[in-house]
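Bit of a strange request maybe. I'm writing a small parser for structure token strings and I need a real example to test against, not something I typed by hand. Could someone generate the tokens for this chain?
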Amino acid sequence: MRLSQILAMCSSISKQALMQLRQTTGYPMLACRQALSRCNGDVSEAKAWLDERAQAEGWAKAEKLIDRTARQGLLGIVQRVASPNCLSLLELRCETDFVARTARFQTLLSEACNSLADNFIASAPQGVTLVPQDRLLGLKLGGSSLADCVASLVGSVGENIICGRALVFNAQPDSLALYCHSPWQAEPDAHPLQQSETGSCQFGRYAAAVAYSGGSEQLAYQMCQHIVGRNPARLDSPQPNPDPESEDALLRQEFLLNETRLVGDVLQEAGMQVAGFFRLKCAEE
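Reply from user aminoacidic:
Good idea to test on real output. This should exercise your parser:
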């Protein structure tokens, strides 16, 4: 676009409308100017035009970027006050952790994870239920599908973005503990945790959850930390592993916070029983 065209565009657009559109959408300033110019300064119409263009460009970019490796990203987890024994989890992958830190990436992940909870938690059987990709990508976020929203984000950031694993975990009738670990803090403009009736979304590179009865919430949380750190593959085994460092049964592992004791002994002393657990690492093959 020529300089004369840009100057003419700027003269017909109010600064207030431009800043509002920029802050609302996160699109580049020049794209916002162009949208407002095409839509006669109407912010709502300009936003719709930008979203439509980003989605179209995103699908085109997604086709080109589909073979690029996406080894960064985040897990999003929603556990609601109204159903504390259940959670929904979604893995959203990208190419760089710079994109994973941004507000737009985390906003999409939060909205998608809450939609996952809306649509699957109420009917989820006991235990872990994996959500098929076709049903996941068809989730509605506002008036658009999750697939379209991902394509729009691809068009905006220019990276391959993939919806990975999605699940719901129903611990009923047991209690549910959750730990979500991230190696870095979110950027200042990152999406805030949604403290509302729809539930807050936690972000992290690792997540673990435990279905338990008895004991205390603190110990259950520590068990989740242990599971993230030691990565057990099963709850128990008939015989202990001769090499304690290679032990993969949770109850027979040395407790991460006190390696002089076994997890099974710690739980027995506290009167806690673990019915099930899971652990995920983002972008883990």
